[in-house]
Design brief:
about 190 residues; alpha+beta; 6 helices
Length: about 190
């Protein structure tokens, strides 16, 4: 009986935490987040992060030239103990260098995890379908996109303009902290208006 109650309490805690965090991408939490964002600072941080990524990563530099736009989240914070969450703000840098749109990313996870870390990521949007997904009314669930490729060292060495066949490429950068694994599963991107 005691074991069953502990299992039930744990399951309830995980479900409640995941549900709560998954709704952070929309609604009142998104509005509070948008009100606290300094758009000029976020634009400057996003440009700086993209320039740094492209200086250090040849594949990112190659993709930048042909991307329709690049969404940059310069600082994401992820943390958790069994139930976890991640979130941060970013800017969409258009292929002409302008920034007109700002976004937040948020997500929830559960499982064997403990710790906290910070990192950044950039999404290189290569075609019009990527933009359509981005501005869907309920937010873009990035991890569920079949046209997303996370670029690691193995892919980066073979990536060229002739091998581009997906609409979105993701790069992670500036990882700091103690928590295993980076991914976009369960991440939702929603437009904000600071």
């Amino acid at each position: 009986m005691k074991h069953t109650l502990i299992k039930l309490a744990t399951t309830t805690l995980i479900a409640t935490g995941a549900l709560t965090l998954s709704h952070c991408a929309n609604g009142p939490t998104a509005n509070i987040n948008a009100a606290s964002v300094n758009p000029k600072q976020l634009a400057a941080d996003s440009r700086k992060a993209l320039n740094s990524l492209c200086q250090q990563n040849l594949a990112a530099r190659k993709l930048r030239a042909s991307a329709k736009g690049i969404m940059v989240f310069p600082q994401i914070t992820k943390g958790g103990f069994v139930v976890g969450g991640m979130g941060g703000n970013g800017a969409l840098i258009r292929n002409d260098g302008t920034i007109r749109d700002f976004y937040q990313t948020a997500g929830a996870s559960y499982g064997l995890q403990a710790g906290i870390q910070q990192y950044g990521y950039a999404l290189f949007l290569m075609d019009d379908s990527a933009f359509r997904n981005l501005n869907s009314s309920s937010g873009w669930e990035v991890g569920s996109s079949p046209s997303l490729v996370i670029v690691d060292q193995g892919i980066a060495t073979s990536l060229s303009t002739t091998t581009l066949n997906k609409s979105t490429y993701a790069f992670f950068f500036n990882q700091r902290g103690l928590m295993g694994g980076l991914g976009l599963q369960g991440a939702k991107i929603t437009r904000i208006k600071p």
